Amino acid sequence: MISSGDLRKGAKLMYEGAPYIVVDFMHVKMGRGRPHVKVKMKGLLSGNVIEKSFLTTESFDQPDMESRMMQFLYVQDDEYVFMDSKNFDQMHVKADTLGDSRWYLMENEEYSVLLYEGNPISVDLPASVILTVIESEPAVKGDTVSNITKPAKVETGLQIKVPPFVKEGDKVKIDTRTGEYIERAN
Questions:
Q1: Each residue's pLDDT tens digit, 59-81
Q2: CATH number, domain containing residue 33
Q3: Is 25 in the same domain as 52?
């Protein structure tokens, strides 16, 4: 059990039968009123973000969650196949479950996979990844304005905007939280 007074960013709780993670919180104590906690939570299964206010005396169950290191093997149809690094069990994860995380997965790399009741619900990614550009238009001579970008496609199929000097075969660093180009990598 977790008390609403103990809620912090990243805390996981069960609310109305579904697992949630706390995105933001604020403890509030009004003059004569009872103290309460305003919480912004994201549903781990649905992805919905809700805002609720709880009295500090309320408590919640903690979801049955586990984090495992798993190696991403390959994509088969619309399923991503992961292998548990310890017991070599394979797990198939639907593309819908992964959401935008799927664009940053590299074959044979290890990722922390969050499981709820034995089923995968999300993959923890590093803050940035380095991917190879496979398609990019050539730069137009004279485009030297600093904020000009062009579309490029990386090896995972993700479409990003890059500066004009980036060409096919270059490795680029991409922020996994925003999907934006950071810099060219060696």
A1: 999 888 888 999 999 999 889 99
A2: 2.30.30.30
A3: yes
